[in-house]
Amino acid sequence: MQAAIVLPAAAQCLKQIHLRERSLPVRLTLTGAAAVAGLHGMEVFDFSLILILLGLGSNFGFLGASALVLKCHGNVDKRRVQAFNYFLIFAVMAVGSFLSGWILARHGWHVVLWSSFVPLAMAMAALLGTARGSSRERS
């Protein structure tokens, strides 16, 4: 319940100080920390910690990704691009939910957690590649 009160305030704070674009590494770190916390144990505290870390990571990731998508397009296309981005987010989340449920039923909780490191590594590699490309353009 407290997260529902704090997260909109955090989003407004991020919007005001223009850290939306920089929130993607924070999101990846929080999501990775959630997977590591899940590997730690299966107690109520562990699941609570996982949910908090995933909630914060999703919030930062959604804000950062939305800001970057809108930054790449002109004013004419912004609404269409934003709607398509939201649709893609929903579709990927739905497929990911069904896939994680299938993995959980077939292989167990630890395999779900270990398999979450694959998309995290891919996202981190893409983020590092983008950062290197933008630093080369500045030079």
Give the count of helical stretches: 6
Q: Report the portion of residues in β strands.
A: under 5%
Q: Which stretches are low in confidence, meaning pLDDT under 50 for 5 or more residues running?
A: 1-6
Structural class, judged by helices and strands? mainly alpha
- Give the overall pLDDT as a whole number: 79
The helical percent reads over 70%
- H-E order: HHHHHH
- What's the Cα radius of gyration? 17 Å
Walkthrough of the structure:
The chain is an all-alpha fold. It is built from six helices and no strands. Helix 2 runs antiparallel to helix 3 and helix 4 runs antiparallel to helix 5. The N terminus is likely disordered.
Main attributes of the structure:
139 residues, mainly alpha
Per-chain topology:
Elements: H1 2-16, H2 23-40, H3 44-71, H4 78-107, H5 109-115, H6 117-138
Helix pairs in contact: 1-3, 2-3, 2-6, 4-5
Briefly say what this structure is.
The chain is mostly helical. 86% of the residues lie in helices and 0% in strands. The protein has helices at residues 2-16, 23-40, 44-71, 78-107, 109-115, 117-138.
